[in-house]
Specification:
Chain B: Its EC number is 2.8.5.2. The complex is a heterodimer. Chain A has strands spanning about 5-10, 15-20, 45-50, 55-60, 70-75, 85-90, 95-100. Chain A is mainly β. Chain A has a single domain, classed as Immunoglobulins (Immunoglobulin-like). Chain A is elongated. Chain B is about 45% helix and about 10% strand. In chain B, the strands form 3 sheets. Chain B has a 3-stranded mixed β-sheet. In chain B, strand 3 and strand 4 (about 190) form a beta hairpin. In chain B, helix 3 (about 40-55) packs across helix 6, helix 7 (about 150-165) crosses helix 11 (about 240-255) and helix 9 (about 195-205) packs across helix 11 (about 240-255). The relative contact order of chain B is 0.15. Mean pLDDT of chain B is about 90; it is low at about 1-20. The chains are: A mainly beta, B mainly alpha.
């Protein structure tokens, strides 16, 4: 099962800054293990962020993104106490969603 | 091995192509600042916090009664005062060996399993996550280890001796690589550990997340790798010499601010 993300969201002057840390191996599918066998690709393909159920960011990820990705973005709006939810899906169909209240 | 040769070849090529990189041209501070925002060590910290509170092991107990030196269950500030002499074991213990002791006494998880284990695997990996959790709660604290106990004095002296002790295929000591100012290897500064600032820079920035291999390394892991770089015998996990070197570095760095967990190349 996928591990939890750490999400921070803070509103200031009508803009919300969101910072997300995801636990994921992000294997490219091009690396080999010590016995020379190819390590299968395993990476996040899609990510979305919702503010009170309204989509504010949708992104496509790929194998060039590092292990344990970090994503920071801002959107207009958002107030203290609002919900901010992030979901990712990977190429194996595994998914993880976490939610925080905007600070 | 092949990777290592490649790295050497590459650095030689770079050396010829761009002679004498000035240290400040690399702007280590900007690099660190960029890395520090979103340090993935936080993911390990979250795991460690969970582990601290989870009943585990043959005794099905949590670690919430573990005494890291400031009383049972007290985590904030504890790492800044480690290693220390513990009356209950009559030993000097660092964070790893103390956590290992708690896991054995409270949870019944045999220390042997961790000592004989591998870094980043099984119970040793869990121990590292616990380390991430504990040190995070001393972030920004001043390093404050108490050297007054005779056993601490003894360990400091042993650590100092080990630091200058030349051995191995290359006849290196720790001091061969860590006793000059302004040195670096690739994008890593090599602190001068013979000086308080250098000792504090080294001691006070590990454990750390390494972006080059996406791994979280404790100080025991850091030291193990430096023994390897020294081309000498692999130290036993949490053995006295590793704790002595830690007492030496922490003691020399006393009073400086710890940045825990660190983030490194």
């Amino acid at each position: 099962m996928a591990s939890p993300m750490r999400i921070r969201a803070a509103a200031k002057d009508g803009v919300t800054e969101v910072r997300v840390l995801m636990a994921h191996v992000m294997e490219t599918g091009q690396r080999k293990d010590s016995s020379g066998a190819l390590i299968p690709a395993h990476f996040i393909t899609e990510l979305s962020a919702r503010h009170n159920d309204k989509l504010v960011l949708s992104a496509q990820f790929g194998p060039s993104v590092s292990t344990n990705p970090y994503l920071a973005f801002k959107f207009n709006g958002g107030a203290k106490g609002d919900k901010l939810a992030v979901t990712w899906v990977d190429n194996k169909g595994d998914t993880r969603s976490d939610e925080v209240q905007i600070a | 091995m092949r990777k290592q040769f490649k790295a050497v070849a590459l650095s030689l090529a770079l050396a010829f192509a761009a002679p004498a990189f000035a240290q400040d041209e690399l702007n280590f501070d900007a690099y660190r600042e960029m890395l520090a925002d979103g340090n993935p060590a936080e993911l390990y910290e979250m795991e460690g916090e969970e582990l601290w509170r989870t009943a585990r092991g043959p005794k099905n107990a949590t670690l919430e009664q573990c005494d890291l030196g400031l009383g049972a269950g007290v985590v904030p500030g504890a790492a800044a005062q480690l290693p220390r002499h513990f009356a209950d074991t009559d030993r000097v213990q660092d964070l790893e060996s103390r956590l290992m002791y708690c896991m054995e006494t409270l949870q019944g998880i045999p220390s042997e399993q961790i000592i004989k284990g591998k870094f980043l695997k099984d119970e040793r990996a869990k121990l590292a996550a616990l380390v991430a959790y504990v040190v995070t709660h001393s972030n920004g604290e001043k390093i404050a280890i108490d050297l007054s106990h005779p056993k601490m004095k003894e360990m400091y002296a042993l650590g100092e001796k080990a630091f200058y002790y030349r051995t191995g295929a290359m006849d290196f000591a720790c001091s061969s690589c860590h006793s000059q100012d302004g040195k670096r290897i690739r994008a890593t500064q090599l602190p001068n550990i013979t000086k308080p600032e250098g000792a504090a820079a080294g001691w006070g920035s590990w454990p750390a997340y390494r972006v080059s291999n996406s791994q979280f390394w404790t100080m025991q892991h850091r030291l193990w790798d430096c023994f390897r770089q020294q081309r000498t015998a692999e130290p036993i996990f949490a053995s006295d010499v590793t704790i002595a070197l830690s007492v030496f570095m922490a003691g020399k760095g006393n009073g400086a601010e710890a940045v825990w967990p660190g983030v490194k190349r």
